[in-house]
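Q: I have 696 residues here and want to know how they pack in 3D. Can you give me a structure?
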Amino acid sequence: MTGHLRIVGDRRDDRLRAIAAHTDKALVVRCHQRLRGPCTGVDTVLRAVLPEAHRRWPDLVEEHRVALLYGMPELSRLIGPPPRTLADEAPYEERTRFFGAGWVRCMNQGIVGFLLEYARRIHDGAALEIAFEEAHAAEPTTQELIALLLRRADPSRLRVVVSATGGTLSGELQDALAGVPVLPAPRPTGPAPTAEPPADDRTPAAWAAVYVDGDCTDDDPRALGGYQRTDPRTRALLHDRRADSLEPTATWGIRMGAIAHHREHGSDPSGAGRTALLAAQRHAVATGFSAAVVDLGLRGRGLTDPRAHEHDYWEFTREAAAACIPVGRLEQSMELYQGLLRRFTDPKIHMMTSYAIAMLHTRFLKPRDHELAVQWQHNAVAIAGILPDPAERLTYSVFHDNGLALVEMHRGNRHRALELVESCIARLDERLDDDQWALHRSQLLYNRARLLVALGRPDEAHADYTRLVDMDPYYTDYLSERARISRDRGDFDAALADYDRAVRLAPPFPELHYNRGTARAQVGDHPGALADFTLVLDMEPGDLDTRIARAELLLETGDLDAAEADTEAGLGLHPGELQLLCLRGTILLQRDQLRRALEAFDGALEKDPRYPAALINRAVVHFRRSHPDLAVTDLTAALEAVGDDPDVLLNRGIAHLAAGHPDLALDDFDQALTLPDADTVELQEQRRLCTASGVR
C-alpha cells in the first residue's frame, strides 16, 4: 500500500505488529493524552526530525519556529528559543490576552506545513511514514493535527498511518479518514509465544505497578485488572511514587498529562492533586489549549472543597467556563458561570462573573443581547469601583470600564466607547510605572486604535498601531491592522511591507494570507496573490471568501478551467452560495454558453433579486441573445440597487439604443458623463451613435 492507512484493533501490541508489517520503518509515535497532554505524539515527531532539519535547512526551521515551539518549549534545546511577546512576558495575574482554538489550529497548520516541506526535501523515492498510535486517546489538539496532515499530505512523500481502537474519533479526523483503507489488527490465534511470561507470574499489586508506571495507558487486561484489584491505598502510593519520579525532569507536557493524573489519583488528591491540576490548567490557559482547560478545570473542581479553597474552585470553574466558548459549548459555559453566582457571595467573584456573562451576551450567544450585556457589565463596574484596596480598585475599574467600552461599541455608541478607553489609558498612565500592567495597557491602546478606525480617524489609529508594533513587535495583529489602514490610504507598498513582515513572524493565519493575497491582486501581482490564496485553501478548503477570491482571480487572468474548478468545488462545500452561482454564470458567459449562463444567473437572483453582479451579467446574456429590452430591465434594477454608476449607465444606454430608444440612451450617457471615473471616450462615442440615429 502506498496511500494513507488506518489500522484498527483493540490491543496496542496487535496494532504495532500491523504497523510493522505494512510500513517501511515508519516513525511510530504514541499519542495518548495521559502521557504529555495536548502535544503528545506531535512532540515525538518533532524530536525525531528537527535535529536533521535544523542542521540541513535552518531556513525551514526558522520559517516555522513559532509554531514548532508552541506548547513544546522544551524543543528550544534543539533549535533555539522562539521570539517573545508581551503576553509571554506578563505575569499570570496580569494576562489579559488569551488565545483559543483558532490560534492553536494555526500553530497546527504551521507544524503540518513544516512536515510537508521537510518530507519534500528529504524525498528520495520513498515516503516518510509516520504512524500515530493510540489516536483514539489523543487530546483534541493532536487529533486535529493528524486530520490536517491526512488531508494535506501527498502519501507518496508523507504517508500517515492512524492506529486506534474502533472507538470514536473527532469529527474532523473521522472525515479526514473517509476513503482511507482500513486494516484490521486482530488478536493472534494459537498458543502464546514462549517468550511471553505466564499469565500468573505477577501478583495484582505487581501488575498495578506496571499499569501506573505506564502512566495508566496500558491496555493489557492483566495490568488493568491488577490495578483494579489492588487496594486503594496501595494504588495511591503507586501514583505518588510515579509522580515523584517524573517531577525532576518534567516538561509542561508531562505536567499537564501524567503528573496531573498521578497527583489526582495519589494519596493527597485535594492537596497535591488540586495544586497539580491548577498549575496544568494555568499553562493550558496561557497557551490556548481550550479543550484541555475544560478537562482540567472540571477535574479540578471535583477535587476542590469550595469552602476550604474558594479561590481555587472559582479559578477552575471560570477558566473552564471561558474555554467552553471556543470549543462551542456555550450552554455549559453559562451554566458554570451561573453556578458560581449561586454558590458564592464574594464581591470579586460576582464582579468577574458578571463581566464574563456580559461578554457571552455581547460576543458569543445568538442572538446577541447587548442590552442585557450592559446590565451585567454595569454590575461588574459598580463592584470594581468599591473594592477596598486602592490598587485593586484601579486595575479592576480599568479592566471593567474597558469591557463596558466593548459593549457600548456593540450598542453603536462608539464615541462613548472611545471616552471609556481613553479614560482607562489616562488613569493607568497617571498611577502606574511604565512597566506595570504593560500587556493590558497595550490592549487598551489596541482597542483605542480600532475605535479610531471605526470613527473615521485613520491617521490617529495608524499612529497607535505604530506605537503598538514598537511595543510588541512579534505580535502580528498590529501589523495586519496597520496594513489595512495603509491599503485604505492607497499606500500598497506600506501595506505589503507590513503583511510580508507579519507572514515572516507569524504562523500561517488564513486571514493574514487572504488579506495579503487581495492586496497583491490589487497591485497586479497575480502570481503572489494566487500563492497566498492557494495556501489558504490548502489549509482550509471551506474558506468561502478565499475560494471566491481565487476563482475571481483565475477568471480575471483567463484561466477558465481553473476558475470553473474552484467555483464548482466551492458550490460543493457551500451549495447555493450566491457569489459562486454568479461566478458560475460569468464563466459560462465567457465560454459563450448563454443558456446555461442564464440558468446560473436566474438561480442567483432567486436567492437575491437585487444582487447587482447577477443582474448586470444577466443583462449581458439578454443582450447577446438579442433581448435588449430585458437587458434594460435588469440594468435598471441594478441601478436601483447600487445607485448611479457610470459603467451600468453606459451599458443601459447601449441596450436602450439597441432596443430603438436613442433618446433614453442619450439620457443615460449624459448622466454617466457627470459621474467620477466615467469612461468618457466610450460615452462620447456612444453619444455620437445616438446623434447619428437622429435623436436630438
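Q: Anything worth noting?
A: The longest strand covers residues 158-164. The mean pLDDT is 95.
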